[in-house]
Amino acid sequence: MNMFVARVVRARPSTPVGIGLVVLSTAACSLAPSPAEIPAVDRMPDSYATDAETPSHDSADVVSWWRTFEDRTLDALVGAALDSNLDIQEAVARVEEVRAQYRIARSSLFPTVTAGTDASRFSQPANAGQFGAIFGGDDADADPNLPDRPSRFTFSTFGASLGAAYELDFWGRLNSSRRAAYADYLATGADARTVEISVAAETIAGYFELRELVAREAILTEVVDILTERLELTEDRYQRGVVSSIELYQIQQDLNATRAGLPLLGSQITASRGRLAVLLGRYPREVEPLIAGEELPTVNLDPIPAGLPADMLAARPDLVAAAFRLEGSRQRVGERRAARLPSINLTGSTGTQSADLSDIVRADQWFTNFVASLTAPIFSGGRLKADQEAAEARYEQEAARYARSVLTAFQEVDAAIAGFNAQRERKLVVDEQLAVAEASADAALLRVEQGVGDYVGYLDALRTVLNVQDTQASAERELATARLNVHRALGGSWISEPADEQDSEGDLR
Fold first, then answer.
1. What is the CATH number of the domain that holds 416?
2. For position 129, what pLDDT does the model report?
3. Which of 146, 163, 316, 480 is the least crowded, having the fewest Cβ atoms under 10 Å away?
């Protein structure tokens, strides 16, 4: 089909997707056009960076990639989502529908065989219809040379037959239709895999969002407690004339502003928990036991290796789906071309027929019927030609869409890696900032304990620590989201996992 897809097949020949690509690319083309050359795909770089050694990736597990976050709660949530998410169930049902449509298209390649039985009884007055014309309308007019005419004519016929019909696929029209339907089936399967990755990614994003909000709520509650104590000390100092009313009002404003944020965080937590519950196909109260009592997990800060091979995009099911749809469009061009040529149909039937039901099994009562027909379209007002041109135009559209998908996917991986590196650097800076704030708070506490420091100054230092922790919680979530974006852009993981973890993931799913 193209060099990129060829690399996919060579890299993963044992997967259902790889097998499907091999089948489609090696089958006879009939009247379908040659596979389109797509320059944007053929000139795709070999890696996302050229200044580093390319790591090995052949054994990377693209199924349980979320395990790289190393969080058991997250693993359980993703497993529950993959088991009960309604979008996945809808996608699976859609795959079954398209699979049935493929079987319908494939059935045209085989003869149609039917079996039937029939029984008929005919009874008519002798002086009516064709018998009346032969024997005369009444007895007075009857021909004396003919035998006596009965008053009625009655006939009974019993039969059993076996019929068959078959169209010779001389031009490959039916086979092209079958291949196109098979490509649609594989593309729909890849779409279902895309839905699965999206659900896993949204579950992970929702989990980190909820964890961040819960952590920030706890931090904000501590800040309110500190500001409350700070306000009480400031009021006492104001009564003693040590501080001005301006400082007192400033502390009151800070306290009120901080307290005002708590209800908003509470509503955000409720909404986040609800979104996570929908992903899991459950109600919010049913999700709470899965996430209660857990702290925000620490995201792996290991940098993403430079020089990742570009053919790792083969793990992206949306590109696989686009490639199959491109192949399906190509086969439909061949189908439309063959529709403009003559078709050969064969029909035949055999069976037995008798006027007596007991004689229907006699061998000498058999009959046969065979018809061969050649039908060629002569004039259809340009409909068949227009159908072919429309199919060719759709094929060109799919080629452009596929090229755009590859370019977009490559750009998404580049952007995701750059975003992760930026968030990683930011997280390191915030961690350093927190270490400095904690050291300052420890120094202030030591001065208070030694009797040379101001307790108010210690509270201010402790408040600074909490504010930096709030920033750190947001940085942790953004780092997790950035790492998730890399996984999502690659369609899996760039990290190889031990075989036992892969086996356990198979059990989980």
1. 1.20.1600.10
2. 62
3. 146
